[in-house]
């Protein structure tokens, strides 16, 4: 009976050893898998850290670009306002030029009329100069004809004075 018990215990021990061996194998397998998962997790953690670093860099770059974009938008708005101002000034200048052109045309017309009047006056002056020259010639001719009379008058005057003197 004792040997039966020993045999039974031996069987149970063998069975237990096999179960322990199976369990040990399972544990080793799970530990190996766990190590793989841990390694993978470490790799992923590194990748995540790198991704976060990249993301931070990209965020900084994006902020820089946003600031630059805002600056360019402001410059664009200023230039747009300047263009509007210059457009208004250009329109004013164009209007002024139109008015000045009208005034210039009017002045040119006035100058043309004045030139015609001046030409007419010059023609009149020329006629008057001719008439004056003719009258001057006639006067000189009359003076030449009258010169002997003047000489006679001077002689008669001298004689008259002498006679007056004798009468006194």
Summarize the SSE layout with pairings.
Layout: H1 2-167
Please describe what this structure looks like.
The radius of gyration is 68 Å and the shape is rod-shaped. By secondary structure, the protein is mainly α. The termini are far apart. The protein contains 1 helix and no strands. The chain has one helix at residues 2-167. The protein is 99% helix and 0% strand. The mean pLDDT is 93.
How many DSSP H or I helices?
A: 1
**Rg:** 68 Å
Helix % is: over 70%
Class per helix and strand makeup: mainly alpha
Largest sheet: none
Q: Unreliable segments (pLDDT under 50, ≥5 consecutive)?
A: none
- Give me the oligomer status: single chain
Distance between the termini: 226 Å
Number of strands: 0
Order of helices and strands: H
Taken as a percent bin, the fraction of beta residues is under 5%
Shape call: rod-shaped
Mean pLDDT: 93
